Amino acid sequence: MAEEEVSLVARRDRPYDPAMCGRMTLARWDVHELAALLGADLLPEHAALFRPRYNLAPTQQGWIVRVVGGRRRLLPATWGLQGPRGPVINARAETAGRLPTFRPLVAGGRCVVPADGFFEWEGRRGAREPLWFHPGQGPLLMAGLHRDGPGGGFVVLTTAASGAVRPVHDRMPALLTAAEAGAWLERPDLSLLRPAPDDRLEAFRVSDRVNSAAVDDPSCVAPIPRLAPAQGSLALGGRPPPERDGRA
């Protein structure tokens, strides 16, 4: 691939995205709770656009936190930047600061992408199974870059994989603590973007219904028991996702 080492969106007829972090979830909190957790302002017209997402795919509307007029704001934004080969959804943290596509965004388009988990696929080609990676508690705060205007949106920055992700993929989102997220929004400090601690995420198998971007309901994050893992595959545990309280 080109020097920029970015990930492109999978074709709609493919069951999974071989690129890192091609699906995510944001369903644990309602939008007002989320804004409060993130210390961000939320405009009423933006709040009206929120719905729980159990299978958020590239080119769809996600959510980001940006600093606008000196204040944090929770904003809807499209996942992906339009590029010459199609939407770009990820960028390597190690190279983003020196590449022409991303260098201006590191300087002036930093954002935080909240989520409560993301999907990866494990196993041999033709029989790959989806896994949902999620924290034990609290939101995932992923470092991102945002661009305004036509073809604009956000990308998720990635680092080398750690912990439960490492046996499945060599890359994972750059995860930030609350303090690191605040620092990332304030200044372009690329040293904040490093592999997460090994115990940061849990994972379990979920239904292959998540393979279709048209499926977006709680079944996407329901754990699938496995009696005996196949030789060479990853046996994963973890707790089921927390119940939502039913608020919009």
Outline the structure in words.
The protein has helices spanning 31-38, 44-47, 93-96, 103-108, 178-186, and strands at 7-8, 24-26, 53-56, 61-68, 71-78, 81-83, 86-92, 110-115, 117-122, 129-134, 140-147, 153-160, 171-173, 202-205. By secondary structure, the chain is of the alpha+beta class. It has a single domain (7-221), classed as SOS response associated peptidase-like (hypothetical protein yedk fold, Alpha-Beta Complex). Strands 1, 6, 7, 8, 11, 12 and 13 form a seven-stranded mixed sheet that branches. Strands 3-2-9-10-14 form a five-stranded antiparallel sheet, with no helix packed on it. The radius of gyration is 17 Å and the shape is globular. Residues 1-18 and 227-248 have low confidence and may be disordered.
Key terms:
5-stranded antiparallel sheet; disordered C terminus; 31% strand; 12% helix; alpha+beta; 248 residues; hypothetical protein yedk fold; 5 helices; 7-stranded mixed sheet; disordered N terminus
Short description:
The chain is an alpha+beta fold. Helix content is 12%, strand content 31%.
